[in-house]
Design goal:
Elements lengths: L3 H34 L7 E6 L1 H14 L4 E5 L3 H9 L5 E7 L2 E6 L5 H17 L3 E6 L12 H20 L7 H25 L8 H24 L3 H17 L10 H6 L4 H14 L6 H32 L21 E2 L15 E7 L9 E5 L5 E6 L5 E5 L5 E7 L6 E6 L6 E2 L2 E3 L10
Parallel strand pairs: 1-2, 1-3, 4-5, 7-13, 7-14
Antiparallel strand pairs: 3-4, 6-10, 7-10, 8-9, 8-11, 11-12
Helix pairs in contact: 1-8, 5-6, 5-7, 5-8, 5-10, 6-7, 7-8, 7-10, 7-11, 8-10, 10-11
């Protein structure tokens, strides 16, 4: 009789292991998307105002009406106001040119929502002062990016595709760490070049190939950092990467809604997250004559360098652990797959696998034969983890073959039971970058052997 109380923890553990990722998405979108985007309000929007006397009056008045919404920068005249926008020191400029005339300088390239917020506020200011306001667009977006969001979607492609590439490469157990790192670099270069020229063909971006370098930088920042984290967060890597590069990066990027319009937590993330820095860099390259590139360039390089460093540390730790367990062997980095694509549980695969495109490559294969060389069909093969936990079970085919995939990179015990034969056991160290073979040659059949 089964004790239900013993099954309950296993059931709860299984449910928790299956549901944590969709729940992360659910609460992540509620907190990181609906919260910052549901009611955007300006915060610390820098506006140049001339002459200084007007700035002195306007600053306190706006603070009373909308505390913290605008940061007024006094400048001498309209020319100075324009320069503040073009040097990226302000996102708008307001110049009073007489008792009846005022000019609002704006930059659509800084974001449509921000442009609308500045236009609405300062049109009201001019009306209260009895002035007629004219609007001058200083930095329009590219012809094919009317809403200003096309550049954001190009950046999203460069931001999310590298994460997916890492998740898929983790399934390629026959590839070494070095090959995977180089593959991610080559894919990043491909994405950067193709993404730029597709966007250029759609008139989403101006023709400045310097943007390709920044596209490549973010692909490596995301891909190498994600891959470098794998040995340290193991099966939680999909959730950690999604949180970093989707749930936190997108709301703080300023792409969907300018970062000046979201709550303080996401505004604080903007200067340090890769996606926001990519957008800042691309705006500088395309629209502001290379102004303000230092910080985003350093941040993107920092993320990429941290990723390569994590990969190196992971390789060193794995080598140390493998050397302690068995000279020259590498161990301990668990194969992780994104649960949105395929469950990472160990499982049997076709022994007749020929590595067709899209098929899972087995990590352990073997044949079972008698001493005379005859195949042993229907033998039970059980793979156990180091602590004795069963990872998977399968049976040999008519030619005595078996194969398994999704096994951890660690020592496993392979237990063989065949009817009419003495049981056999083998201990195998599974390592990165290869398919391991464990064959069995069974002893002479004995009477009274345990059935399979």
């Amino acid at each position: 009789m089964t004790d239900e109380s013993e099954d309950e923890p296993t059931l709860l553990t299984s449910l928790a292991g299956s549901l944590w990722f969709p729940l992360l998405f659910f609460f992540g979108f509620l907190i990181c998307y609906m919260l910052p985007f549901h009611s955007p309000e300006p915060h610390d929007v820098r506006v140049a105002v001339s002459p200084p006397a007007v700035a002195g009056r306007l600053g306190p008045a706006l603070d009373r009406k909308a505390p913290g919404a605008f940061e007024i920068i006094p400048v001498g005249d309209a020319s100075d106001a324009r320069k503040k926008i073009l040097s990226r020191q302000a996102v708008a400029a307001y110049s009073v040119e007489g008792p009846a005339q005022a000019t609002l300088f704006i930059a659509k390239a800084d974001g449509t929502f921000l442009e609308q917020a500045a236009t609405s506020t300062f049109t009201s200011v001019a009306k209260q002062g009895g002035q007629t306001i004219r609007t001058v667009e200083l930095v329009p977006t590219a012809r094919g990016d009317v809403t200003g969001t096309g550049l954001f979607y190009l950046s999203m492609a460069w931001n999310i595709a590298p994460y997916i590439a890492v998740m898929m490469l983790m399934r390629a157990v026959t590839l070494s760490r070095r090959v995977k790192v180089l593959t991610l670099a080559v894919m990043g270069a491909f994405m950067a070049v193709v993404g730029f020229y597709v966007a250029l063909a759609m008139d989403v971006v101006p023709n400045d190939p310097v943007a390709i370098a920044y596209g490549f930088l973010i692909t490596q920042a995301v891909a190498q950092f994600t891959y470098g984290l794998v040995p340290f967060v193991r099966q939680f890597i999909p959730g950690v990467a999604i949180t970093l590069f989707v749930l936190l990066s997108i709301p703080s990027s300023g792409g969907a809604i300018p970062y000046q319009l979201v709550p303080g937590f996401f505004r604080a993330l903007h200067p340090v997250m890769p996606l926001g820095n990519l957008l800042d860099a691309l705006h500088g390259v395309f629209y502001f004559d290379y102004e303000g590139l230092l910080r985003p360039t350093l941040v993107l390089c920092g993320w990429a360098a941290a990723g390569f460093a994590l990969v190196g540390v992971g390789a060193y730790v794995q080598h140390r652990k493998g050397a302690e367990a068995e000279a020259g062997a590498a161990a301990e980095e668990e194969l992780v797959e994104d649960p949105t694509f395929e469950a990472p549980a160990p499982h049997a695969v076709s022994p007749a696998h020929h590595e067709h495109f899209g098929e899972v490559v087995p990590g352990l294969v073997g044949t079972v034969r008698t001493a005379s060389g005859d195949p042993v069909a229907d033998a039970l093969v059980t793979v156990l983890a180091t602590g004795g936990r069963q990872l998977m079970r399968t049976r040999t085919d008519d030619e005595g073959r078996y194969a398994a995939a999704g096994l951890p990179e660690d020592f496993v015990t392979v237990l063989l039971l065949a009817r009419g034969h003495t049981p056999a056991v083998a201990r195998v160290l599974l390592t990165t970058g290869r398919t391991h073979r464990q064959d069995f040659v069974l002893e002479t059949p004995v009477h009274g052997a345990h059935p399979a």
